Amino acid sequence: MLLEVEAICDRGCVRTNNEDHILVPGNLFSDAACEMEITLNGPAVFAVADGMGGHRAGEVASKMVL
C-alpha cells in the first residue's frame, strides 16, 4: 500500500527550538514539517511525541519515547 504522509509541528511562541518528534515508519523527524511517500507491506505505527515545554531537554524526552 502506498501512503502519502504529511506532518507539521510548531515550536510555539515561547520556545526557540522545536521539542516535538514525529515517527513515520523508518523515519524520525523533528523538523517543522515533513512530506513523503511510503510503501507499507503490513501493520505500521505512526506517532507524535510532544516536547516537555518548560523542562530542560524536552526534545530529548520526546525523542526517547519514540
Q: How does this model look, in words?
A:
It is built from one helix and five strands. By secondary structure, the protein is mainly β. The strands form two sheets. A three-stranded antiparallel beta sheet has the order 3-2-5, with helices on one face. The longest helix has 8 residues.
Name a few traits of the molecule.
single chain, 1 helix, mainly beta, 3-stranded antiparallel sheet, 12% helix, two-stranded antiparallel sheet
Q: Helix segment count?
A: 1
Helix coverage percent: 10-25%
- What is the arithmetic mean of pLDDT? 83
The helix-strand sequence is EEEEEH
Strand order, sheet with most strands? 3-2-5
Strand content: 35-45%
Q: Can I get a quick summary?
A:
With 66 residues, the protein is mainly β.
Write the topology of this structure.
Blueprint: E1 2-8, E2 21-24, E3 27-29, E4 33-39, E5 47-49, H1 58-65
